[in-house]
Each structure stands twice: as structure tokens, then as C-alpha cells.
Amino acid sequence: MNRLDTIRAQHPLVICYTNDVVKNFTANGLLSLGASPAMSQAPEEAEDMLIPANALLINIGTLTKDREADMLKIAKTANKVGTPVVFDPVAVGASQYRKDFCKTFLQEVNVSVIKGNASEVLALVDNEATMKGTDSDQDLDAVSIAKKAHEVLKCAIVITGKIDVIIQDNQIYKLSNGSTFLAQITGAGCLLGAIVASFIEDDLKVDIETLIQAVAIYNIAAEKAEQIANDKGPGSFMIALLDCLSQVSETDYLNNCNKQEVK
Q1: pTM higher than 0.90
Q2: In a 10 Å sphere around its CB, with 0-12 CB exposed, 13-18 middle and 19+ buried, how is residue 169 labelled?
Q3: Distance between CA atoms of residues 164 and 85, nearest Å
């Protein structure tokens, strides 16, 4: 059974400590794919929630001082019980506050996957890097940034953009599926972080093919959603994306995944 079919048969639990803006969309996206979301943010229940969970997503989009401590406690509990952690450092380059928290988080927590745009991932390894809000600099060399981050942070890196870049165990792939509408709705990247978490097969060291499948299947669903939304606009696309996540198949992946290994 392929991973997508396994998700739909087993409904893996994904614990999402994510930002306030995207909780509903993230939960609906995971449900549409076939996973089971839980938006748990209480350290007091972390161990009970994380033991049966497939993975933990930590997304810092609406970071506050109180949430800093909770994120660290929950992520450390995930490490304790052996649940993989996916880290989404939203807008980390927009403020020194976010940079400082991410530095602390990555020093104290073992992370399996980091997912972010090129500017966000660069800010994790270069304290001089800046960004405007959540926007990424489209002129950055995502492959070079991915290589540096993988070397420094010792985990899988997923860089999103017009061309996605994935690196694990020094293997690098570029993926070129997707839709321009993804940049016009709130939470598209945040949902992808949760989708990646749902694909991890209870393994602290995720393999690159699993990451390729997660990213490509999401983006192929987005392509199908764009065809449905046609000229209606991003609101129609958002609804269509949820529908297409429930319908996208392994055959769609095999027939439509545009990937290229970088030597």
C-alpha cells in the first residue's frame, strides 16, 4: 500500500500547534486528505496526545512569550516519547524576536523536518537575513540555502516557492508542481507543513521520497483546484483545494510529479 492510501486507511493523528490564522483551514485540509488533526496547545496533555500521534507540527506564525514556553515543552515531550517534529518557522526573518526563539528551539529540540520559504530558512542559518512579513525574496538561491541549512541544522529541509527544494541525507530534488493561487490564500504553506507531518511514518528520520510525495501530492491537488476554480478567483480555489485533496491519487502523483534531482 502506498503512503497516500495508508493515510486514508489509517487516519494518522497529527498534533498541530499552529497559528491562530490557519487552524480551521489546516484541520480541514488534513481531514480532506484523510489524516486526523488535533489542535492541541496544552503542555499538560502533550504526552497523552503525542504517544499515539504520527507527528507534531510546530508553527510559530502567531508567536507570543507565553506560547514560546508551551511550544518548547510540547516539542520536548515529543522528543521524549519518540514522535517526529515538523518545524515551520513562519516569518522568522521578520524580527529578531522570532530569530532568537527559533535559535533556542533548534538548540533544545530534535527536529525531523524544517519547512519554510527560502527567506525563512536562510534566516535560520544567517542572523543578518531579513524579510518583509511572511514574504520570501524570490531572487534567493534556494538550492544553496537548502544545502547550508541541511549541513548546519542536521535535519531534512523543505523550501517552498515557485520551485520547491527538498534535501535529506545530502540528496536534493527540485519540484515544479503547484498553482499561483497558493500565494493568494492565507495558510497554504502552513497547511503544507501539516501535510508533510501526516506523511511521516512514525520515523524520526524521514526519507526524501516521503517528503517528495507529500509536497508533490499537495501541489498536484492545487493544480487540479486551479482548473476547477478557473477564472473565479482565490476564494473558489481554497474550497476546490480541500475537495481536490480528498480526490488526489497515487496515480495522479506517478503521472504528474515534476521532480528533478540536483547533482
Answers
A1: yes
A2: exposed
A3: 20
Whether 83 and 53 have beta carbons less than 8 Å apart is answered as: yes
Q: Is the dihedral of CA 143, 213, 116, 150 positive or negative?
A: negative
CATH of the domain at 88: 3.40.1190.20
Q: Residue 245: give the domain boundaries.
A: 3-262
**Total count of domains within the chain:** 1
Q: Is 1 annotated in some ligand binding site? A: no
For the chain, what is the total number of helices (H) and then of strands (E)?
11, 9
Residues in the chain: 263
160 among annotated binding-site residues: yes
Q: CB within 8 A of 231, min separation 6: which ones?
A: none
Q: Is 115 known to sit in a ligand binding site?
A: yes
Residue with cell 502552513: 190
Measured CA to CA, the distance from residue 243 to residue 250 in angstroms comes to: 16
Contact assessment for residue 125 and residue 96, using Cβ atoms and an 8 Å cutoff = no
Q: Is 39 annotated as a binding residue?
A: yes
Tens of each residue's pLDDT in the chain, 263 residues: 689 999 999 999 999 999 999 999 999 999 999 999 999 999 999 999 999 999 999 999 999 999 999 999 999 999 999 999 999 999 999 999 999 999 999 999 999 999 999 999 999 998 776 656 555 566 789 999 999 999 999 999 999 999 999 999 989 999 999 999 999 999 999 999 999 999 998 777 799 999 999 999 999 999 999 999 988 999 999 999 999 999 999 999 999 999 999 98
